[in-house]
Specification:
By secondary structure, the protein is of the alpha+beta class. It contains 13 helices and 19 strands. About 30% of the residues lie in helices and about 25% in strands. Bound molecules: flavin-adenine dinucleotide (FAD).
Length: about 450
């Protein structure tokens, strides 16, 4: 049976005769950054081993009409591909999964990833906060390089090919692709399979969590997938009218049932419904509805803010309290809101400020309490926490501990990193390792 997938980027499908399904040394499922990079890694080793051996092939099956749709959305279309730093620096940005990722990050480090793209003509810009973007600020440049390299290496990329099931057949895999032709199922025989179907966030980009069912059918445990890197909605959002105000490197704490869970620092943004910004997105991985966020809008602890406010009140008794708050660093709109929330008149002056009102202002500025009503859903989350249980995957090869010849790459794994380029780096690093390991197993030794 011939695969009748309607679109392909490059074409080189292997089929021994018309009655047998096409076959490939390696079938990569998912045409995101992890899938494309893994496919290129396998194909590069194939070419290094014996460029005249056409019996070995790499096929990418992508369910959507185009590859890399989430990659194109990354960094608001500018692609924050990685972060400045050594592999060691990266480990702490993946929570408890840093340990699992260590061999992958050392195998393809942030510097190694940038070198790979630089060798193919991409220039990069490093921001002062350490985020790395292509200098062109175009995610398409990254995708174009991946696709060009895949073409150059003879990778077969088939579009509109949703994989619905993977079966074992002795040492090989039968990869089933359905819904494309009236005859029903189509299948490919593969020596090795790399699952790179991504997580569940931004399902409109094709990442709908299909890979979890594929992996589960082969015996893998799936850690419950949940949206990660999401903005939060706030109950009774009294600061909603301040939407648009941002606070660089603000400190905040999260309390659950009165107990402090976490203290963090990061850029915050007030939105119409709650809070966003990299600091909140990163911390959202540990938040639950009902948690209380205490925010240090004034940039100081309660003690420090109280001391500075007392000094300001003493020095400028005839000025407005609002002016004193602005002098202490609060944005004017926020100072006006705090005056109102503390029950003061807009014209209140420093000389008339009573102790209770002063203490109310100190709490608002240094420990503003906001209750989390809900976290953003799949349509807003930039990553997925949960996925294929990493305890069932060899960290040095990305091969399944349960199914020899099956590999994982990218966000399908139970790995999620902070914002700032950590998720794409994890996708590329796990892909490089999975690709190299799959090539070795498929008999492509360099
Ligand atoms: C809006 C947004 C912005 C982001 N910005 C950044 C950023 O700037 N920096 C950063 O580091 N990270 C960023 N991320 C996260 C990053 O994009 C992902 O971590 C990364 O794309 C994961 O790569 P992946 O290849 O594992 O999965 P994906 O990119 O999700 O690709 C998976 C592919 O598999 C395909 N697929 C799914 N099921 C099947 C199936 N059954 N058969 C065949 N194909 C299938 C999908 O169509 C998809 O093309 C962002 C995410 C979002 C949503």
């Amino acid at each position: 049976m011939q695969c009748a997938c309607p679109a392909r980027y490059n074409g080189r499908m292997q089929s021994t005769n018309s009655d047998s399904p096409p076959s490939a040394s390696c079938v990569v499922i998912g045409g995101g950054p992890a899938g494309l990079f893994a496919a290129v890694s396998v194909a590069e080793r194939l070419a290094q081993a014996d460029s005249s051996d056409t019996s070995k092939s790499v096929t990418v099956l992508e369910k959507g009409p185009r590859p890399g749709r989430k990659l194109l959305a990354s960094g608001s279309g500018q692609c924050n591909i990685t972060h400045e730093g050594s592999p060691e620096d990266f480990l702490e940005h993946y929570g408890s999964r840093g340990r699992f990722l260590k061999p992958a990050l050392f195998s393809l480090s942030p510097a190694g990833l940038l070198s790979w793209f630089r060798e193919r003509g991409v220039h990069f810009a490093i921001e002062t906060n350490g985020k790395v973007f292509p200098a062109s600020r175009r995610a398409t440049e990254i995708l174009d390089v991946l696709l060009a390299r895949a073409k150059d290496q003879g990778v077969d990329i088939l579009m509109n090919c949703p994989v619905t099931r993977i079966d074992r057949d002795g040492p090989e895999f039968i990869v089933n692709v359905t819904g494309l032709n009236p005859d029903g199922a189509q299948s490919l025989v593969a020596q090795t399979v790399i699952l790179a179907t991504g997580g569940r966030s931004y399902p409109r980009t094709g990442s709908e969590g299909d890979g979890y069912a594929l992996a589960a059918t082969l015996g893998h445990t799936i850690v419950l997938p949940r949206p990660a890197l999401t903005p939060v909605k706030v109950r009774n959002h009294v600061l909603g009218r301040l939407a648009g105000l941002s606070f660089p490197s603000a400190r905040f704490a999260i309390r659950r049932n009165g107990r402090k869970l976490l203290e963090a620092r990061g850029d915050l943004l007030i939105t119409h419904e709650g809070l966003s910004g990299p600091g909140i997105l990163d911390a959202s991985r540990g938040m639950e509805p009902g948690d209380i966020l205490e925010l240090e809008f004034g940039g100081k602890s309660e003690e420090a803010f109280r001391a500075d406010l007392l000094a300001e009140l003493a020095n400028t008794p005839v000025t407005l309290v609002r002016t004193a708050l602005v002098a202490l660093g609060l944005p004017r709109r926020m100072a006006e809101s705090f005056i109102e929330l503390a029950g003061l008149q807009p014209g209140a002056t420093c000389a008339n400020l009573r102790r209770e009102s002063r203490e109310a202002l100190v709490r608002l500025a240094a420990a503003f309490p906001l209750e989390i009503e809900s976290l953003g859903g799949w349509d807003e989350a930039m990553a997925t926490t949960g996925g294929v249980d990493t305890s069932e995957v060899f960290p040095k090869t990305m091969e399944s501990r349960l199914v020899p010849g099956l590999y994982f790459a990218g966000e399908i794994l139970d790995i999620d990193g902070d914002t700032g380029g950590y998720n794409l780096q994890a996708a590329f690093s796990t892909a490089a390792l999975a690709g190299a390991s799959a090539a070795t197993r498929a008999g492509i030794r360099t």
